[in-house]
Amino acid sequence: MLNYIHDSDPNIIAEKLLDWYDQNARILPWREPPYSTQIPDPYKVWLSEIMLQQTQVVTVIDYFLKFIKRWPTVSDLANAKEDEIMHAWAGLGYYSRARNLHKCAKEVVTKYQGVFPKDEMSLQALPGIGPYTSAAVASIAFNQRANVIDGNIERVMARFLRFESFLPKAKKELLLEIEPFIHSSRPGDYAQALMDLGATICTVKNPNCAHCPLSFTCAAFKNDAIQYYPRKKKREKTPHKFGYLYLIQNDQREIGIEKRAANEMLGGLYGFPTSDWRVGEFSHSGKYGEMIENLEIIETNHKIIHVFTNFKLTLIVVKGKKK
After folding, report:
1. Whole-structure pTM value
2. Which residue of the set 32, 49, 120, 177 is catalytic?
3. Catalytic residue status for 164
4. What is the mean pLDDT of each run of 10 residues along the chain (323 residues)?
5. Distance, first Cα to last Cα, the chain
6. What structural domains does the chain harbor?
């Protein structure tokens, strides 16, 4: 059911947006500027979109440039060792993205001879590619009419339409409403224009509506209600987990580390062993629980606190050596 029937011609809206984009497009290393004669590189588009998940553009740029320099093609990435990719990815977080990046590159090479498929369904069948990424690659790299919606687009269009349902739960509903506005001949530029508008003008706080190309027909702006959209329910309190981190020395004063299993948090990375992370209590439970009984404890007075996206973690450092 539509929340709001917009009174403007979608074609006019798209043209106004593209006129603005042609003058104000961000310069990004994975992007071809408006009306460029160069065809976008699907490898660069895909790599950037994977990196940009849950990560800001300013952080991604350096990582992207390093990856492209080291692995300039999808075949180069497919032939790399997973440990090399994980090391290069270190600091970007959400490390399952890096593992899926490698798996996807291998499949593109073996199944598609190093050429990314153009349609959304085939793209979604590849490891690590969901509805958003498939739409973004199809639209930006292949100029397919795909319905792209990231956080910036969600915010812009929720305000533009004065979308009343709560997001992100109602994202499918919003997708139906914004579909008519997609530009038929420049869908990739249209999607990137919305991304740039959200990143530079229609920002979360203090949007610059005076310089927005769509303010003349934005429903939230016309009703002085920008601050109320997109509508989101209050987040539940972030869980707090606790555990122990073990710094264990042997007689040669070497420190023990482990490679975390792929299905674990921070999977595939090397680090110090820890106990299980449990909500509300410290416990030595886990695969290293019995080890504490065979240690000569040297120190336990240091804490590490880290905030992940979905929970807060406090670890007590247990420094010791084998008896």
Report:
1. 0.80
2. 49
3. no
4. 53 93 97 91 98 94 98 98 93 90 97 96 96 97 96 96 94 95 95 97 96 94 94 85 86 81 76 87 79 70 84 88 72
5. 68
6. 10-228 (1.10.340.30), 240-322 (3.90.79.10)
